[in-house]
Design brief:
330 residues, mainly alpha, 3-stranded antiparallel beta sheet, 12 helices, 3 strands, globular, Fido, Fido-like_dom_sf, Fic family protein, Fido_containing
Length: 330
Amino acid sequence: MYQRLDKALAELRQRFGGLPDPREAMAIWDDIWHLEAHNSTALEGNTLVLREVELLLDQGRAVGAKSLKEYNEVRGYADAARWVYQQALEPGDWHDGRLLTVGEVRQIHHMAMTPVWDVAPHPDANERESPGNFREHDIQPFSAGMAPPVWTLVPARLDDWIGQVCLLGEGAGTSEDSPPLPERLARLHNSFEQVHPFIDGNGRVGRLVLNLILVRLGYPPVIILKRQRDAYLTAMQRADAGDPGALGELIARAMYDNLNRFIVPNVAGLARMVPLAALVGEEFSLPALRQAAQRGRLEAFQGPDGTWRSSRKAVDAYRESRHRRKPRQG
C-alpha cells in the first residue's frame, strides 16, 4: 500500500504539478467536501445520508426528519472543512509560516462546533469551555484504558504536539530508517486524540487538523468512511498501545483513494470509470450528471461510498442521445 501511494504521489507532482487549486477543480473538491462532511460526522453518530448532506450544503435545504443538532453538526463541519482547504493552499496574512499553530486548532474547533453549541451545548461545560476553548474537565479513561491528561496539562501537551507536527513539516527525523509517512501521520493523529484538548468534538477536529496538515504538505485530504468506523476505532486503540501500523495503513488507503480523484481524470481512458466530478464540463454540471445517472439516462454506478461513477465514453453517448432528434410521426 505504501509503495502504491508513493508512486501515485510522485505521479501527481511530476506529471500534474501537485494538487489543483480548488478554483481550478471546484467540482472535484466539492465532491470530497460532501463526502468528508457526511462520513466524518457519521463516524460520531450523525444519521444524515449523503444526499441529505448534499442538499443541505448546496441548497440549504434541511430535508428529512432529523434533529436541528444533526443538521448543524454537518453544517459546522462543512464550514470548518472549507476553511481548512482554503487555509492549507492560501494561508491568511496572520499565518506565521509553521505547518500548524495552536490558534488554527482552536479556530477549527470554533467553526466546527459553534453551530452545534448554539442548539445543544455540552451539558457539563462551563462558560469557559465553549467552542475554541480548551476543556476544564478531566476525561474518564476510554473503554480500552487510555486516559487523557488532566485538564491543567492540556495547553502544555498541545504545545508539545504542535512541536511534533512542525518537525514533520521541516522533514526532521526523516531517513531511510524512518517509519513511512502514513505511520508518522497516524502517530500524530492518535496523539492529538490522546490529548483530547476539548470537552467535545475532538474526533471531528482531529480529522480536520489531519487534513490541514496533509494539504499543506501537498497531499490530498483523507476521508475515513463511516463503514470503516470499527476498523478505525480498533486501529486507534492499537496506536494507543504503541502500534500505529493499522492506522497508518488506513490513512494511506484514504490518501490513495482521494489521490485518484485528482490523477485518474487526467490519465483515464475513455472507458475507465471515474467519479462524476471528474467528468464535469461546460455542458454538464455535477448535479446534471448525477440526475442523469439516477434516472438511468447515463451509464453509471454508485459505489459503497455513495459516489456515482461513469466514464467519458458514457457521457459522450449521453450527449449524443440528448442531441439526437426523434423521427417525426407520419
